[in-house]
Design brief:
The chain is an all-beta fold. The protein is built from two helices and 25 strands. The strands form two sheets. The chain has a 19-stranded mixed β-barrel. It has a two-stranded antiparallel sheet with strand order 11-12. Strand 15 (about 300-315) and strand 16 (about 320-330) form a beta hairpin. The longest helix is centred in the middle third of the chain and has 7 residues, at about 290-295. About 15% of the residues are buried.
């Protein structure tokens, strides 16, 4: 969703109205969107509204299990305004809201005290609601004779996210579960730019703090007549991220075209700490104590230096070829560090646990990309890229039994015999390609002036290797192998409205 009036307005265009409509056959969802913008060089704004209605994502035609019925709808609203307070300062304020309601039903499964499960013939119903609020204020400072920068952009932002589920079964003895995932994020970021001779420098800093909670309440949960009090599925946590970067774009004239070399380096740091772990697994069976959770969870902190290098060449004024290398890092998130489920609920040696690992290492990657983007000929805009990403300490999920891996169970209650653990894989790779093209139909047909067609296709494959799985590569289930998009749009030649 665009977030700036400048995406739609210019010095000679002071109003805009657009309507978008779309359909996705994967989940039979419809999308309707409206965009309205207006203003001048001093004060301008934009309002965007998006509505989506859909159903469950259908399984592949040869799948043996059908998808559970789902009906959902979502609304998103964004309002953003820009105020040129003086010649040197430009203020931007943005407010956004998103909500999604999801209604589903699925067969109810009973779990016995031995850990086995079976369908009981009843149906469970789940209502889910996700809400997100966000607000940000930014100031763009452009001094007339800045020594260290030509522009300085500072931004303060806050967001609040709530994801709540209510699940109930229609069994003879109905069970009810209320669960949630609430996150508050506060951050500050600043970026400066400076041009000098054939150099364009950019540098900046950022800091962000996120606090997460996972409340859970359950009623009438029973296994073989034994009442169960579920613990929260994740420890509360506070995560602080900070970073800094510097980049230099050096440009020369080569054969009458711009050739650029862009070295860059970024520093990223994260500190994660669990909170309120003393009551994380409170349960009437007493299988998990405060000492257990204190041994299981702890702080996680790491910093990474991430270099990058890009070469660009303009084959034509509006056609760019590039090759780039970037070092990447993915810090483990709160769920991967402090998540837990079914830990010690059953009270026997056959129960299982699904938990995160506070000792996870940072996932790092070396990313290579070769691409071409721009206008090939009049009326045809192309974007094509091929990429290969090589990962170390790839974060994935593993399956273990106590008998075969006793060391992994050292800090767990002795009632746990099966463990699904978030872990670092030794290695992983992902490769693929993307191709998209936009055709301005009015270039060839006068009657179609303003109409454009978009075609896009993406292909991705990946695998990971871990000593726990026999030291061999196994396919990744977190990548989408293929994706295609077909679209039709209309932009009024008078620049007053658009349909997509």
């Amino acid at each position: 969703m665009p977030k700036s009036p400048d995406n739609f307005l210019s010095s000679d265009k002071h109003s805009y109205f657009g309507y978008q409509v779309g359909y996705d056959s994967a989940d039979r969802s419809f999308h309707n969107g409206i965009t309205a913008a207006g203003g001048d060089d001093t004060l301008r704004g934009v309002v965007v509204y998006s509505r989506r209605d859909g159903n469950e994502t259908e399984n592949h035609s040869d799948a043996t299990i059908n998808s559970n019925p789902v009906n959902w709808h979502s609304n998103a609203v964004l309002a953003s305004g820009i105020w040129q307070t003086t010649d040197l300062h430009q203020l931007t304020g943005t407010v956004e809201y998103y909500e999604k309601f999801n209604h589903s039903n699925f067969p109810t499964w009973n779990v016995s005290a031995s850990g086995s499960s079976s369908r009981d013939g009843s149906t469970s119903f789940q209502d889910s609601k996700t809400r997100r609020w966000g607000v940000s204020v930014a100031d763009l400072y452009t001094p007339t004779d800045g020594l260290l920068f030509d522009s300085l952009n500072g931004k303060l932002f806050f967001s609040k996210t709530e994801a709540h589920d209510y699940t109930i079964s229609n069994a003879a003895s109905p069970t009810q579960v209320w669960s949630g995932y609430d996150t508050n994020t506060l951050g500050l970021e600043s970026k400066a730019t400076k041009e000098w001779r054939n150099h364009r420098f950019s540098y900046g800093v950022n800091i962000r703090q996120s606090e997460s909670e996972r409340p859970l309440t359950a009623q009438n949960i029973v296994a073989d007549g034994l009442p169960i009090q579920l613990g929260r599925p994740q420890a509360d946590s506070k995560i602080i991220n900070a970073g800094a970067f510097v980049q230099d774009k050096m440009t020369w004239d080569v054969a009458g075209r711009d050739f650029s070399v862009i070295p860059a380096v970024r520093f990223a740091w994260q500190h994660a700490k669990p909170e309120n772990i003393d009551n994380l697994f409170t349960n009437i069976n007493g299988n998990v104590t405060a000492n257990n959770t204190a041994n299981m969870y702890g702080t996680n902190s790491d910093g990474q230096i991430l270099p990058a290098l890009t070469f660009q060449y303009n084959l034509k004024p509006d056609l760019l070829a590039y090759v780039q290398y970037k070092r990447g890092a993915q810090f483990p998130n709160a769920g991967q560090l402090y998540g837990a489920w079914s830990l010690g609920y059953m009270g026997t040696s056959s129960s299982y646990a699904t938990i995160g690992d506070p000792n996870l290492k940072t996932e790092t990657s070396d990313n290579y990309e070769l691409g071409l983007k721009g206008r090939i000929v009049d009326g045809v805009t192309l974007s094509a890229a091929a990429f290969y990403n090589d990962y170390k300490n790839f974060i994935a999920n593993g399956y273990y039994r106590r008998a075969g891996n006793p060391d992994l169970f050292a800090n767990l209650p002795n009632t746990i015999s099966t463990l699904y653990l978030t872990e670092n894989r030794d290695k992983a790779y992902i490769y693929g390609g993307e191709l998209s093209a936009r055709f301005e139909l009015g270039t060839w047909f006068e009657q179609a002036k303003g109409f454009s067609a978009r075609l896009a296709y993406g292909y991705t494959q990946g695998a990971s290797k871990s000593s726990a799985s026999g030291d061999r590569y196994v396919n990744l289930d977190t990548v989408t192998p293929q994706k295609a998009v077909v679209g039709l749009a209309y932009d009024d030649p008078s620049n007053t409205m658009a349909l997509r």
